[in-house]
Amino acid sequence: MVSVRCPSGPQRTCHLGAGRPCQESGAVGVRRPCPPSGGDVSTMALVPQVVDAVRPLPVLASGAIADGRGIAAALALGAQGVNIGSRFLASAECEVSDDWKAAIVSAASRDAVKVTFADQILPPPAEGGFTTVPRSLRTGFVEDGNTHPEATAAQAEAMRTRVMTSMRDGTAHELVPLTGQTAGLVHDIAPAAELVHRLITEAEATLRVLADLTSAKNSADEPT
User: Fold this and answer.
1) What is the pLDDT at residue 67?
2) Contact, 14 vs 21, CB < 8 A?
3) Is the predicted pLDDT of residue 171 greater than 80, yes or no?
4) pLDDT tens digits for 34-65?
5) Residue 137: beta bridge partners?
6) Geometric angle at alpha carbon 137, from 182 and 202, rounded to 5°
């Protein structure tokens, strides 16, 4: 699967590192952060543009999706499936700290802020990847890095070492608990199987409501 993160990206990223055209790769993933500046093109605006650009390839939408209504919206935009991140961080099986999961459950969407210095403390993207500006729940580490960019740049190597060490020892959530704004839609920690069932049930219910609205409109338009 190849990944697209901005409207100009579909044709440009439809070539894989091995020279294989994306028509042979099976699917196109759509994610929100748009290179090179890390600015945002929202899922609602980006997905239909990518769908149009790469048709008939299947498209997976990613970003701001955490419940069945988001899945239904992605399907309405032309995607054939979705990639869900933050919702499954707060699942029973996810191997992150319980404190991280609890923080997601208690967080509001505004608590997930951009880590503007991420490129200085996180590993670079793999070949063919994009530099992005991820979001994290607020911590003192994140606030200091965002507020004091010059000091962050000067201490980048030490901060990077600190982050990598925290990833190895299971305390990354104390520094950079990467989480999207859909944290505001996450209200519990549940088994993954239960979450999948809940997501599908919600999506089906939403699509039925939309179908009923269309049916009611068509009935109202019929001559009497």
Assistant:
1) 98
2) yes
3) yes
4) 443 344 678 899 999 999 999 999 999 999 99
5) 112
6) 15
Whether the model pTM is above 0.90: no
Using a 10 angstrom Cβ sphere, with 0-12 exposed, 13-18 middle and 19 or more buried, the burial of residue 191 is exposed
Report which of 132, 124, 120, 115 is spatially closest to residue 158, judged by C-alpha positions. Answer: 120
Q: Using CA of residue 63, residue 67, residue 71, residue 77, what is the dihedral sign? A: negative
CB 50 within 8 A of CB 28: yes
Query: Which tops the pLDDT comparison, 131 or 204?
Result: 204
Nearest alpha-carbon partner for 81 in 89, 93, 72: 72
Instruction: Give the pLDDT band of residue 15 (cuts 50, 70, 90).
Output: very low
For the four alpha carbons of 65, 84, 197 and 212, in that order, the dihedral sign comes to positive
Which residues, including other chains, have CB under 8 Å from residue 135's CB and lie 6 or more apart? 112, 113, 114, 115, 178, 179, 180, 181
- The CA distance from 71 to 84, in Å, is 9
Q: Which residues contact 203 (CB under 8 A, 6 or more apart)?
A: 68, 69, 71, 72, 75
